[in-house]
């Protein structure tokens, strides 16, 4: 295989990988910038709504959870936001209520771990 052919294949593969990531030539820089701006604004609005719904202690607890398990904190925030949008939450969520909500979520999503140990038979073992 000649060098120009190899370079063409590399270029095609690089373009495919970049297109899969969403950073390729399929979008111009203005569209990417607009998408990033929309994501940032949505996140700001989300945080603003959460600050109205949660007390300071509850927000601090969610922030501590986010340090250890970001996906779990995001899930708790989603549950709280949905409950607020449907009218289930009419007053600020205290830390105690947040803890009870976390316990409910933990019982629903608890995975049971099962460990199985298989011993390989040894040559020296007598049956």
Automatic annotation (TrEMBL):
Q: Which InterPro entries match?
A: PDCD5-like, PDCD5-like_sf
Name the domain of life. Answer: Eukaryota
GO cellular-component terms in the record?
A: cytosol; nucleus
Q: Which GO terms describe its molecular function?
A: DNA binding
Pfam families of this UniProt entry?
Answer: dsDNA_bind (PF01984)
Compositional bias (Basic and acidic residues) spans? 33-44
Query: Which Gene3D superfamilies does this one have?
Result: PDCD5-like (1.10.8.140)
Keywords for this protein: DNA-binding
Keyword Transmembrane helix carried by entry: no
The record's comment on protein family reads: Belongs to the PDCD5 family.
Q: What's the protein called, per UniProt?
A: Apoptosis-related protein/predicted DNA-binding protein
């Amino acid at each position: 295989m000649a060098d120009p052919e190899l370079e063409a294949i590399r270029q095609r593969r690089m373009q495919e990988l970049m297109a899969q990531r969403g950073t390729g030539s399929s979008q111009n820089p203005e569209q990417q910038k607009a998408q990033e701006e929309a994501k940032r604004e949505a996140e700001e609005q989300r945080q603003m709504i959460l600050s109205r719904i949660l007390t300071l202690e509850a927000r601090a607890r969610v922030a501590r959870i986010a340090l250890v398990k970001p996906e779990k904190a995001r899930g708790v925030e989603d549950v709280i936001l949905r409950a607020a949008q449907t009218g289930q939450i009419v007053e600020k969520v205290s830390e105690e209520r947040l803890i009870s909500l976390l316990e409910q979520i933990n019982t629903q999503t608890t995975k049971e771990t099962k460990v199985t140990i298989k011993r390989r038979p040894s040559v020296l073992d007598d049956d």
